[in-house]
Specification:
Radius of gyration: 17 Å
Bound molecules: 2-phosphoglycolic acid
Distance between the termini: 16 Å
Helix content: 40-55%
CATH topology: TIM Barrel
Oligomer: single chain
CATH superfamily: Aldolase class I
Number of domains: 1
CATH architecture: Alpha-Beta Barrel
Strand content: 5-15%
CATH class: Alpha Beta
Length: about 260
């Protein structure tokens, strides 16, 4: 099945409102036409509203980096999926390894967030990926499958195509050392088998991204793998020229 390529920028804990708008303006200049490819940026919560305005009239979608599972209530400091929809988000990242590592998020928590995001009409981007020690122990497929099944528990086959999955080996994130494209593809094949076993035919529509030290120089290696449909870009999504190079690579594959 032909799936539309998707490039997502995860800005993490970067950018004031002013910096965020400047980055969007830089992106608009660098990007040009994004036809043939879907592009989204995920600023911090405080910049979402301003970035939504700055993106007006472009084909770039807005996403958030996390959400809570409840729509409202006594959860000081949290932001609900409905609030993200209200501010103009289409995507929300759930289960990023930094949330799992620094904020103790388990598969059960990630699953609650993902279900709440779907219920609010957002497209969740579920992040999964093994740590270096899992990899050294030969447990990559097992760890990734468990995260996938845990994160997607309770999602119906009808709703599954709304989910995006990002395979991000933890040891490749922010290190400048990406996975080898063929290794990422092998994991992605295992993930597709796992999705097919659990959800059948509808899993074919799920887009599978690679993330972890993606750059304009290496992205083609990943996008050239038939099982990989796009990229989740961290550090280099803060550089408009580099991010535009990554998008351009996805577009040129498409045409
Ligand atoms: P990186 O981050 O591109 O800086 O490695 C990717 C991510 O954390 O999503």
């Amino acid at each position: 099945m032909k799936r539309r390529p998707l490039i997502v920028g995860n800005w993490k804990l970067h950018n004031t409102v002013g910096e965020a708008i400047a980055l969007v303006e830089g992106l608009k200049r660098a990007l040009g036409d994004v036809a043939g490819c879907e592009v989204a940026v995920c600023p911090p919560f405080t910049a979402l509203y301003a970035v939504r305005g700055a993106l007006c009239g472009t084909a770039i979608a807005l996403g958030a980096q996390d959400c809570h599972w409840a729509e409202r209530g006594p959860f000081t400091g949290e932001v609900s999926p409905g609030m993200l929809r209200d501010v103009g988000c289409r995507f929300v990242i759930v289960g990023h390894s930094e949330r799992r590592q620094h904020f103790g998020e388990t598969d059960a928590v990630v699953n609650q967030k993902l279900l709440a995001a779907l219920a609010a009409g957002l497209n969740p981007i579920l992040c999964v990926g093994e740590r270096a020690r899992d990899r050294e122990a030969g447990r990559t497929q097992e760890v990734v499958a468990a995260q996938l099944e845990g994160g997607l528990a309770g999602v119906s086959a009808a709703r599954l195509p709304e989910v995006v999955v990002a395979y991000e080996p933890v040891w490749a994130i922010g290190t400048g050392t990406p996975a080898r494209p063929e290794d990422a593809a092998a994991v992605a094949v295992g993930m597709r088998q796992c999705l097919r076993a659990g959800w059948g035919e509808s899993s074919e529509a799920v887009r599978l991204l690679y993330g972890g030290s993606v750059s304009g120089a290496n992205v083609r290696g990943f996008l050239g793998q038939a099982v990989i449909d796009g990229a989740l870009v961290g550090g280099l999504s803060l550089d408009p020229v580099e991010f535009a190079r990554i998008v351009e690579a996805a577009r040129s594959l498409e045409t």
